[in-house]
Write a structure and sequence with these properties.
alpha/beta; 11 helices; two-stranded antiparallel sheet; 12 strands
Length: 295
């Protein structure tokens, strides 16, 4: 895939430069050299396929394609958030290599965790999952609380030094969904690890994240390929990476996790189709072979 991406991007860069030099839409009327368009990288959700985003970023770095902003949903938000804060790609890849859907969605056994790790886990734990309160018994909203997941996310977002995502080395947005209203929620400030966890909280599997009075779940439900968010951030050109969410086969739907994942994949189909229509002639769509063959 990287070689295919590189060849298409080289052609795209050449066309973009030619347009600027001939006084096209990217030309600056008062400058001898054309003003460079602002480029946004949009990274879709796609479960365990999220590692493919690292390959795209490698090619962009090799070709010295500037990235002025990043918008990510679900798996795309993990890679996008880490990269936006300045974490080296080699470190991101190393952290992502050992991850799987099963390991992310499995809460650790507390007795086997060192004391320091227990203290770290308590720092960003998102509220009680079960208990007795004024209104009776409070039951969990997901199969797991996501403590193990958030521990991984804290390592990947360790370079966050500002609550304003616009002040990262690369401005960043994470996309989530309001569980109560079904609205898309664009996260642009606060705890980056919580924002990413909210963006990938699969309904009924990972407990929702409560932020600013909202219960937030996976952004793929409302916007799996958030091209429109990148436009609102001021992007002139969008590089959209759609790693795809092909439906699971009947024989692969064997558990609560796989059934919930299938429901999410069904919901993403329509909103991805709409986002693809929003891409213009200067934009680039990168679709891995497995995603293209599934359409």
């Amino acid at each position: 895939m990287p070689a295919r991406i590189a060849s298409s991007l080289v052609l795209w860069i050449a066309c973009l430069n030619a347009t600027a030099q001939t006084g096209g839409p990217t030309a600056h009327a008062t400058s001898a050299s054309a003003q460079r368009p602002r480029i946004a990288l949009v990274l879709s959700g796609g479960g365990a396929r999220g590692g493919a985003h690292i390959g795209v970023l490698k090619v962009l770095e090799e070709l010295r394609v500037p990235v002025d902003m990043i918008v990510g949903t679900s798996a795309g938000s993990i890679v996008g958030a880490a990269y936006a804060t300045g974490l080296p790609l080699a470190t991101i890849e190393n952290e992502m290599q050992g991850l799987s859907t099963a390991s992310l969605f499995h809460d650790v056994v507390r007795d086997s965790v060192p004391m320091q790790r227990k203290a770290d886990d308590a720092t960003n734990y998102v509220g009680p999952e079960m208990g007795l309160g004024a209104h009776g018994l409070s039951l969990p909203k997901g199969a797991v609380a996501g403590v193990a997941l958030e521990a991984v996310l804290r390592r990947l977002t360790a370079r966050q030094h500002n609550v304003d995502f616009d002040r990262f080395p690369v401005p960043f947005r994470a996309i989530a969904t309001d569980l109560a209203t079904s609205e898309m929620v664009v996260l642009d400030r606060g705890s980056l690890s919580q924002a990413v966890r909210a963006s990938m909280a699969i309904p009924a599997v990972i407990s929702p994240v409560e932020l600013d009075g909202r219960l937030l779940v996976d952004g793929g439900v409302t916007r799996n390929l958030p091209v429109d968010v990148a436009r609102r951030m001021g992007a002139d050109v969008v590089i959209a990476v759609n790693i795809g969410t092909p439906l699971l086969r009947r024989e692969d739907i064997t558990s609560l996790l796989s059934a919930s994942e299938q429901m999410l994949r069904i919901l993403t189909t329509t909103n991805v189709a709409q986002s693809l229509k929003e891409l213009g002639p200067r934009d680039v769509l990168i679709t891995p072979a497995w995603a293209a063959s599934a359409r």
